[in-house]
Design goal:
Pfam families: Redoxin. By secondary structure, this protein is an alpha/beta fold. The chain has 15 helices and 7 strands.
Length: about 325
């Protein structure tokens, strides 16, 4: 597998960065000179549900058009992959599709885009009900209505297929692994007395991997108190131990720093076709998460292990 392929961000998180218009421009201000700061809060990608709810209430009082409030709810739901939230606003979206006014839009281009997202949400709901035929029908309609969102929808399908496969995948925790300093260990050893292990697959040639090292260190410190051990798994093709040890020293890494065997057993079993990639594994070897480190789904998976886990502030 070549490095160009491995560098691709083939995740839903990356696709969400391409959502029509909203990310490419500042939200339009409503009539009456609504403060730009309020509009930015309304479309803040890092908002919690409560922060968004508070911003919507304030924006409503300030006279922000209802259409823009609905768009803010939609974008937040898509970013966080919150199917329950998206299902809750579905009736509002269906009404908006019939009354869409491009002049009032915060960035979404057309009524067909709204209709497309309606079909997309219905597809997610069908998938949750294990209705494969319904899922396929709604996703095809979503593609037809808004080809511009094809990458988002394709990534969703890929993610769901991977999750389906991972549900029946078990990792061999006793596989002998090398560390960057030449010692040997196993995932079972690393997970002793812990609730789970979170493995970050990386390589020195992967720019995004290296950029996320400070965030990885923060995750390790944050999750340690919740009984979850974080480990790095290097994928360099040449002199992996030397490269990994050099990076460990430069970055001040103090948690397990592992080397994937040259026959790439994890890459094959976990279908790792892009990095950075994070894998969350339970003490029984079951895969609890397989995706991008910045995908909101990671924190959803972690909260299932310990409801007290909260994503640290940036």
């Amino acid at each position: 597998m070549d490095k160009i392929t491995m560098k691709r961000f083939s995740t839903l998180f990356a696709a969400l960065a391409l959502l029509t218009g909203i990310h490419a421009q500042e939200p339009k201000q409503a009539a009456g000179q609504v403060p730009q700061e309020l509009m930015q809060r309304l479309f803040n990608p890092g908002s919690t549900e409560q922060e968004l709810t508070d911003a919507i209430k304030e924006a409503n009082k300030a006279g922000v058009p209802r259409q823009q409030l609905i768009e803010a709810k939609l974008i937040w739901g898509l970013r966080t992959q919150n199917t329950a939230w998206l299902g809750k606003i579905l009736p509002e979206l269906e009404v908006l599709a019939g009354n869409f006014d491009s002049a009032q839009s915060a960035g979404i281009k057309s009524a067909d885009d709204i209709r497309s997202f309606v079909e997309y949400i219905k597809g997610l709901q069908a998938q949750e009900k294990k209705d494969d035929a319904g899922f396929k029908k709604h996703m095809q309609e979503a593609f037809w209505l808004a080809p511009s969102q094809a990458q988002l929808y394709a990534q969703t399908i890929d993610k769901l297929r991977r999750e389906s496969k991972m549900a029946t995948t078990k990792i061999d925790l006793q596989l002998v692994l090398a560390t960057s300093n030449g010692e040997t260990t196993t995932l079972q050893d690393q997970m002793a007395g812990k609730k789970a292990v979170l493995i970050d697959f990386w390589a020195s040639w992967c720019g995004p991997c290296m950029q996320l090292m400070p965030e990885l260190k923060k995750k390790a410190e944050h999750l340690k108190k919740h009984g979850i051990v974080v480990a790095g798994m290097n994928k360099d093709d040449e002199k992996a131990e030397m490269v990994a040890e050099k990076v460990r020293g430069e970055q001040g890494i103090e948690f397990p720093w592992l080397i994937e065997p040259t026959d790439r057993p994890f890459t094959k079993m976990l279908e790792i076709d892009s990095i950075p990639r994070m894998i969350l594994i339970g003490p029984d070897g079951k895969v609890l998460y397989n995706g991008h480190p910045q995908d909101p789904g990671l924190w959803s998976a972690l909260k299932k292990i310990d409801p007290e886990i909260k994503e640290p502030e940036a």
